[in-house]
Amino acid sequence: xxxxxxxxxxxxxxxxxxxxxxxxxxxxxxxxxxxxxxxxxxxxxxxxxxxxxxxxxxxxxxxxxxxxxxxxxxxxxxxxxxxxxxxxxxxxxxxxxxxxxxxxxxxxxxxxxxxxxxxxxxxxxxxxxxxxxxxxxxxxxxxxxxxxxxxxxxxxxxxxxxxxxxxxxxxxxxxxxxxxxxxxxxxxxxxxxxxxxxxxxxxxxxxxxxxxx
Length: 213
Fold this sequence. Notes:
Strand order of the largest sheet: 3-4-5-6-7-8
Number of helices: 7
Shape: globular
Number of strands: 8
């Protein structure tokens, strides 16, 4: 099995591949780490990657999981047939993306419901829309309702930096009853994110105390 030496040789039974299907995205977020344009894999190439992943999991005796991301994975032309191939291979699959039309989501759900669908918010409406674009907050809230109606578990992710560190706890309260899970990760200062500041050590420690409370 795979061993993580940083965890003192502890074994893991599951290996997850986060698969960036495309760099295409309808948003232009201020903290985006990669807006480069890259060639996408054809559907046949993507299927070969899936086969390689299966061989990797068999060789290391781990159960595979697939997390489809981007850009926006729904802008990858071969998403539906690839999703069908992943489901046929027996891998649990989750999605990290932007809100999509109910009809597009239904194409996926008809094959099999994803383990969860993760969308992003960067704070309450004013702060979030300054980072992700006007109207984005309301769009996400509406989509969370679509996920709930469809029975797809939802997760909201926030990318934490100095400009929105005070938004995490208020946003968590706002999302109660709307999302199944809410989490955050610290900003990586690459790409556009290099122009944003991280909180100081003291600011981050004080925030964590409030978060835990």
